[in-house]
Design brief:
Blueprint lengths: L1 H14 L5 H9 L2 E5 L4 E3 L7 E7 L1 E8 L2 E9 L5 E2 L2 H6 L6 E4 L3 E7 H10 L1 H27 L2 H11 L9 H8 L3 H12 L5
Antiparallel strand pairs: 1-8, 2-7, 3-6, 3-8, 4-5, 4-7
Length: 200
């Protein structure tokens, strides 16, 4: 438990160093520990998302389901972007357009919406933290949209590897393909090309 709190404090202070350790531990103490099985859903399309997760161990996938096909929108990963929620649904109290599922057995902390908003409203540092996280989401979204329009499939895959280090070894290839907007066969060719030794 102590190690989990230390990692959580480190992540928060990296984003918002003005938040002191006492406030971070207070927020952590309000969390409920939860576990998810591989393939278990955190959010279903059409339901209101009322919780915020912090991922200590595991990966979650955000995806859309359209005409029987799945389209991966994003990943929440323990090593890079560990907060996870259906943001629009959580903030506006509307039905989620997304599904969110655990891709690995996952260990998380969970807060309900009321806890989060009350805590953030009472502490100015947390309000700044929330704005920085929202800005980060927007910047990532804009970056991905620009890459979809201007970059080749090979370039998009390289950006994916930069944005999510080692995730390619933890996530099924077809999820990565739908995230990149390409066919799984195309991703297989790109990966094979990257692994091919240089000709002498």
């Amino acid at each position: 438990m102590a190690g989990m709190i230390d990692r959580f404090c480190s992540f928060i202070q990296k984003v918002a160093p003005e938040i002191n350790l006492e406030e971070i531990r207070l927020f952590a103490s309000a969390a409920r520990e939860r576990t998810f099985r591989k393939g278990e859903l955190f959010v279903e399309q059409g339901e209101e998302c009322s919780h915020l997760l912090y991922i200590h161990q595991g990966i979650f996938r955000y995806y859309l389901l359209h005409e029987g096909e799945e389209f991966t929108k994003d990943f929440a990963v323990d090593t890079s972007n560990p907060f996870c929620t259906a943001y629009t649904s959580f903030m506006l109290q509307k039905p989620s357009a997304l599904w969110i599922e655990a891709l690995e057995p996952s260990k998380v902390w969970s807060w309900d919406r009321k806890q989060v908003l009350e805590h953030f409203q009472q502490h100015l540092g947390w309000s700044r933290f929330a704005k920085k996280m929202a800005d980060h989401l927007f910047f990532r979204k804009e970056k991905k949209e620009i890459e979809q329009l201007t970059c080749s499939a090979e370039e998009r895959y390289r950006h994916f590897l930069d944005d999510f280090p080692k995730l390619a070894q933890r996530v099924p290839q077809y999820h990565i393909a739908t995230y990149l907007g390409i066919a799984p066969e195309s991703l297989s060719r790109i990966r094979a090309k990257r692994c091919k030794p240089l000709e002498r």
